[in-house]
Amino acid sequence: MVILVAGIIWAFTQGAQYLSKLPGNVWAGGVLLCVCIGIVIALKIAIRDFLDRRAGKSAARKAAAAINEHLPSLVRRRAQLVRSDAYGKPRLENWAKEINYFVDQHIKPSLTPRQHWCFIREKQSSIMTAIHMRVEQEAEKNPAFLTFSDDMTPSEFETFCADELRRAGWNARVTLQSRDQGVDVIAEKNRIRVVLQCKLYARPVGNKAVQKAAAARAHEQADIGIVVTNHRYTQDAEQLASTNNVLLLHYSDLRNLDALVRAAGSAPDTWYYDDGKGQMGPLDLEELKEALGTLSDPKAIFVWCSRFSDWKLARDIPSSNL
Q1: Nearest of 205, 284, 203 to residue 247 by alpha carbon
Q2: Which site in 23, 45, 234, 297 is 20 to 30 Å from 85, CA atoms measured?
Q3: Strand 185-189, strand 171-174: pairing
């Protein structure tokens, strides 16, 4: 409304200076024409302003959605890229480049031309600040970022990784370095055995660590091999790990190892059953079948699997699953 009124006043003022020199009837008609032109101009400006503001808000919403979707990865990338200088001050240059990359690859492609124009004109700096602040807030929620230090020795980093796994419910121990066979930490939980290569590096981790983790997994007869680091991995290391049943993790991932192992398909199903006298388990599938075989009416027993949302009667479970 303010823009509309301002447009009318501006058009009237400009036109009046010219029309004041004309005869009366012509002057009056000219005033009316100027008013109409002013209204049209003001409406055009107001509509453009409304569309720009709406596009700017839409761009901000899309940016927020992208940030929320990729927040765990952004937090991990910050931890991988930010290092402290000799005076304890964080060096943010690489992290700033990563934010720019994220904006270019994951926000801008989703914008319409008008949203993109508004984003570049007004929103980009504020969005980049929002990414930085949002990631900082999320990182503060992860205790691993509070207990980790760039000043750790490699041995201290191994102990740190084992401690993180214990906090997640794993039975973890650091191996003797003289007999480790490429294994820094061995951990077990719910009959799952994993071996860890712990790499405290100032550069990306390459193939050698993946090869050691794969060999250690075979030597220890573990279900899965893991490399964990404070940095990132080379592309070659990622390709080699994908074909050797090796997980490549950042240290902040360790408290979520259960879900990561399940997602990798390395965790067998965990089963329980209740025969009316009490709950029994955890068991693997073969142990469950053996236990049910000792009961008089095994099909009437309630069982539960880590894939189920609730208990089920054994008779209701397809024979292929039981």
Answers
A1: 205
A2: 234
A3: antiparallel
What's the pLDDT at 245? 81
- Residue 129: which domain range? 2-140
Q: How far apart are CA 309 and CA 304, in angstroms?
A: 8
Q: How far apart are CA 62 and CA 68, in angstroms?
A: 10
Q: Name residue, tokens 């301002």.
A: 6
What is d(CA 321, CA 230) in angstroms, rounded to the nearest whole number? Answer: 40
Number of domains in the chain: 3
Beta bridge partners of 83: 91
What's the rounded mean pLDDT across residues 267-278?
75
Backbone φ/ψ region at 208: left (φ over 0), alpha (ψ -120 to 50), beta: alpha
- 148 located within any domain: no
Residues 6 or more apart whose Cβ sits within 8 Å of residue 268:
191, 192, 284, 285
Whether the per-residue pLDDT at 2 is higher than 80: the answer is: no
**Nearest partner of 182 among 240, 242, 232, 222, judged by Cα:** 222
The answer to whether position 200 is within a domain reads yes
The answer to whether 1 and 32 have CB atoms below 8 angstroms apart is no
Where helices occur in the chain by DSSP H, the ranges are 2-19, 24-69, 71-81, 93-102, 113-118, 124-140, 143-147, 154-167, 207-219, 235-242, 257-263, 285-292
Question: Token pair for residue 13?
Answer: 């003022």
73 plus 118 within the same structural domain? yes
Residues 128 and 14 in one domain: yes
Strands 312-313 and 185-189 turn out to be unpaired
> Is 84 found in the same domain as 62?
yes
Q: Which pLDDT tens digit goes with each residue over 279-317?
A: 787 787 888 888 888 888 888 888 887 666 678 888 877
When mean pLDDT is compared over 54-58, 179-183, 190-194, the highest value belongs to 190-194
What's phi and psi for 218, nearest 5 deg?
-65, -45
- The Cα 247–Cα 227 span in angstroms is 6
Determine the Cα angle at 37 with ends 32 and 43, to 5°: 125
Q: What are phi and psi of 181, to 5 degrees?
A: 50, 35
What the block records as the tokens of 141 is: 């929620």
